[in-house]
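Cytochrome P450 (Heterodermia speciosa), 215 aa
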Amino acid sequence: MTHEEIISNSGLLLVAGSETVATLLSGATYYLLRNPSILKRLQDEVRSAFNTENDINLESVGNSAHLPYMEAVLTESLRLYPPVPASLLRMTGPEGDVIDGNFIPPHTSVGVHRWATYRSAANFTDPDSFVPERWLADPPERYRTDDRAAFQPFSLGPRNCLGRNLAWFEMRSILARILWNFDMMLCDESRGWASQKSYLLWDKPSLWVNLSRRA
């Protein structure tokens, strides 16, 4: 690799490896604080799953079955607030390709816009509502027709996100530690925090939250 290629790839690794997780956790925090009953259920799950903060480790949070509601909360946060809301483009080959029954000419950039897909009523019931229960193993009847296959926050195929497993561990571990240690309340100045512009990533403002040590 050339020096310029090393610099370019280093920047990409920093953004993809840290900014995306930070963005998702910001969104999850916002939606939890806007939905107190969901926050309470997740707090109860986390605080009953561990005896001490030291019990929150790679083994305990690495298994999604250990914290099923947290898994549902993070997944719903990825749906409502995907860290990369736009399309990650790929190019058709020299022979072109057929996508959804339509022939696409050779060397054409194609992609699926995540935000539009995840907010479409054709794919998800109540698409603009924060409903972690839709991702549980036994979801409410209303959400059993959701098209889960449309949800691909880490992309798919041979060029999907290589840091997916690390990202899941970071998200579970950080959120579990915050909920274990603190009670949280959204500050008034962040009530409309989710109303943001997006480019490749979100142009997100500061998220103001009051933290207090759990009783």
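The mean pLDDT is 93. The helical segments are 3-33, 36-49, 58-62, 68-80, 114-118, 164-181. ok done for today
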